[in-house]
Amino acid sequence: MATQNLDLVTPRVGSPRITVIGTGYLGATHAICMAVLGYDVLGVDVDPAKIDALASGRVPFYEPGLPEKLREALDAGRLRFTTDFDEAAAFGDVHFVCVGTPQAPGSHAADLRYVDSAFTELARRITRKALLVGKSTVPVGTADRLTALVQEVSPIGTELELAWNPEFLREGFAVEDTLHPDRLVFGVASEWAEEQLRRVFRPILEEGTPLVVGDLPTAELVKAAANSFLATKISYINAMAEICETTGADVTVLAEALSHDARIGGKFLKPGLGFGGGCLPKDIRAFRHRAEELGVGDAISFLDQVDQINLRRRSRTVDLARELVGGSLDGVKVAALGAAFKPNSDDVRDAPALDVARMLYLEGANVVVYDPEANVNAHRVYPDLDYVESLAEVVDGADVVLLLTEWDEFRDADPAALGVLVAERRIIDTRNVLDAEAYRSAGWTYRALGRPAAVEVPAESEAVA
Ligand code: UGA
Q1: CB distance 100 to 130 below 8 Å
Q2: From the CB of 270, is ligand 1 less than 6 Å away?
Q3: Position in ligand 1 atom list of the atom nearest CA 431
Q4: Are the C-beta atoms of 286 and 109 separated by less than 8 Å?
Q5: Are 303 and 287 spatial neighbours (Cβ–Cβ below 8 Å)?
Q6: What is the mean pLDDT of residues 161-185?
Q7: 122 and 89 in contact (C-beta within 8 Å)?
């Protein structure tokens, strides 16, 4: 099938006008991409700083390719930003709500106050038939509750309809995942709502993108189930890493062998320091919490194990660092390579890298951190750690180096050149991305999660025999 060029076009006359409430990661990307697809879009947020930044062409977070798309949308005159909900209510035919659902303080539940507020503020101002579409990740049952709420406060009552359209974009690939998603999911309560969503996503559907239409609770559950599955897959291979560590087996070889089975597949089977970020950790906890509330907690109690396996990778890394420097981290100079929860992101929410750096610091290590994009955000969260601006500076005089986020810059570094800068050639590759042999040949003690301390190299005569 020929792929249509979506990065285009003339304004879509007669197409629905779109608002996007919440211009964080998800909302800003959605608003920008919808405008790039040719729709007239109004981005709305309660934070004037975000709105000012976006309106002046600046994306307030790191996402490859998004600044260029923002420029394109602004230049085409199809994208505007406001803090005014009255303007949003008057402008939009289809309103997407993309506000955050963080973990509630002191609980595993999702904090729904921003979602509730966005839907209510909008609904009480809407005076003509319109569709409200939730994109935020919410506990199952939220959309039904919100339907009752918005229809009660809206001047048009049941004429105001609600739909759910979960989002599956990954940070670092946000533009690609939004313009060319691997599927679309619509949760709807009427044919009219489905029709509106089909109009909004027409260019993407015309590409042949699979569409799954269900009811509201199913659409909400799809997102929780998808993120839970991904988290489970990562923790599965990391559980195997634990077994490998006590048996001398190599989890990277194991993972590769599993990946060739098409039923298993190699994606999200990368053993290492595990998952973090603003989605997977809080989503599995909120899902568990919701299942308990519904009386079906046993069905997904395994997600507690998934969470624990994931967190154990962090303490295992600290144990390995302690072991490698001879038993105590007190006063040891540690070079932490990476702070973001994954490469190509400046997001440090629940970042395994930063958590390990913090744990080492609490054991008395002198931790120096370098992340190509996340230093500023990391410093905001952990101002006690030292931050430097280059790879050369971070490894300078280090007693042990920890690769914590697999940026290309770290992956591509020359072990011999790094070796000249450190005090001791010791490295822990927590993401299993370095060439172990290249490091060992350059005189490094190389350790990784889930792999034996050193690969047995058979003597030459044995190898020939
Ligand atoms: C995740 C999902 O992948 C998206 O589909 C979803 O839309 C998004 O959450 C969301 O709910 O908004 P994201 O948080 O951007 O996306 O990050 P991922 O690419 O999923 O990575 C999550 C974490 O898992 C990272 O810390 C990464 O290092 C880790 N990971 C990933 C592994 O440890 N091993 C792997 O094999 C893959």
Answers
A1: no
A2: yes
A3: 33
A4: yes
A5: yes
A6: 97
A7: yes
Q: Which pLDDT score is estimated for 454?
A: 78
Distance, CA of 150 to CA of 315 (rounded, Å): 46
Q: Judge whether 244 counts as a catalytic residue.
A: no
Tell me how far apart the alpha carbons of residues 329 and 280 are, in angstroms, rounded to a whole number.
Answer: 31
Closest CA to 290 of 225, 366, 240: 225
Across residues 318-341, what is the average pLDDT?
98
For the cut 50, the answer to whether the pLDDT of residue 324 exceeds it is yes
Q: In this structure, what token pair is assigned to residue 169?
A: 């974009």
Strand partners, 133: 96, 163
CB 378 within 8 Å of CB 369: yes
**What length does the chain have?**
465
Q: Single out the residue of 25, 28, 18, 21 nearest to residue 46, CA to CA.
A: 21
Q: Is 275 in the pocket of ligand 1 (CB under 6 A)?
A: yes
The protein residue with its alpha carbon nearest to ligand 1, atom 31, reads 268
Among candidate residues 14, 26, 3, 450, the one with its CA nearest the CA of residue 240: 450
Identify the pLDDT of residue 13.
53
Q: Which helix (H) or strand (E) holds 88?
A: helix 85-91
Contacts of 191 (CB under 8 A, 6+ apart): none
Q: Are 192 and 161 in contact, with CB atoms under 8 Å apart?
A: yes
Q: Where are the alpha helices (DSSP H) in 154-250?
A: 174-179, 191-200, 202-205, 216-247
Buried b (16+ CB within 10 A) or exposed e, 92-107: bbbbbbbbbbebbeee
Query: Is residue 182 classed exposed, middle or buried when 0-12, 13-18 and 19+ CB atoms within 10 A define those classes?
Result: exposed
pLDDT value of position 194: 98
Neighbours of 364 (CB within 10 A): 12
The structure tokens listed for 459 are 């003597």
- Report the distance separating Cα 263 and Cα 265, nearest Å: 6
pLDDT for 253-262, tens place per residue?
Answer: 999 999 999 9
Q: Which residue has the CA at smallest separation from atom 29 of ligand 1?
A: 275
- Beta carbons of 165 and 96 less than 8 angstroms apart: yes
- Say whether pLDDT at 10 is over 60: no
In our burial notation (b when 16+ CB lie closer than 10 A, e otherwise), range 366-400 reads bbbbbbbbbbebbbeebeebbbeeebeebbeebbb
Mean pLDDT of all residues in 416-435: 98
Helix (H, G, I), strand (E, B) or coil at 250: coil
Residue 455: the pLDDT is 54
Backbone dihedral angles phi then psi of residue 334, each to the nearest 5 degrees: -110, 130
272 Cβ closer than 6 Å to some ligand 1 atom: yes
Atom of ligand 1 nearest to the CA of 342: 28
Mean pLDDT (whole number) for 438-457? 89
pTM of the shown model: 0.93
Q: How far is Cα of residue 227 from the mean position of the Cα atoms in its chain?
A: 10
- Name the residue of 227, 403, 405 whose CB sits within 8 Å of the most ligand 1 atoms, as the mutation to test its pocket: 227
